[in-house]
Write a structure and sequence with these properties.
The chain is an alpha+beta fold. It is 17% helix and 35% strand. The protein folds into two domains: 3-54, no CATH class; 63-104, no CATH class. Strands 1, 2, 3, 4, 5, 6, 7 and 8 form an eight-stranded mixed β-sheet that branches. The longest helix has 7 residues, at 68-74. It is elongated, with a radius of gyration of 15 Å. The relative contact order is 0.20.
Length: 110
């Protein structure tokens, strides 16, 4: 039977396996209290009997979401950056940075 894990992501480089913890469920209420201080996102996955990472969830981002239009109004200088020009959703992460979101990303208000 596969075990469930959560893996946390931080600004900059993260090393696979360094920021993962076993969890009993894919419940965000269980994850938030154990999230490291500088984590900006996380996702769930399972490990099969061979230790392979399988069955990844969407990314859960910690912060405040902006629509592309609201972002352009509030942060016009940042919105002109190529990274954000075509973004329909942007997160202002808990650490202060801004990141474009994919359609499947989930925002957890923090």
């Amino acid at each position: 039977m596969a075990k469930q894990f959560v893996e946390f992501y931080f600004p900059g480089v993260s090393l696979k396996g360094q920021n993962e913890r076993e969890v009993s469920s894919r419940n965000t209420e269980e994850v938030l209290p154990i999230a490291p201080v500088h984590a900006i996102s996380y996702r769930f996955f399972d490990k099969d009997a061979d230790g392979n990472h399988v069955n990844y969830s969407a990314y859960y981002w910690l912060g405040k979401e902006f629509s592309g239009e609201d972002f352009k109004i509030k942060y016009p200088q940042l919105a002109s950056d190529d990274v954000f020009k075509s973004a329909r959703r942007i997160i202002h992460a808990v650490t202060g940075g801004f990141y474009p979101l994919s359609e499947t990303d989930i925002v957890v208000p923090a």
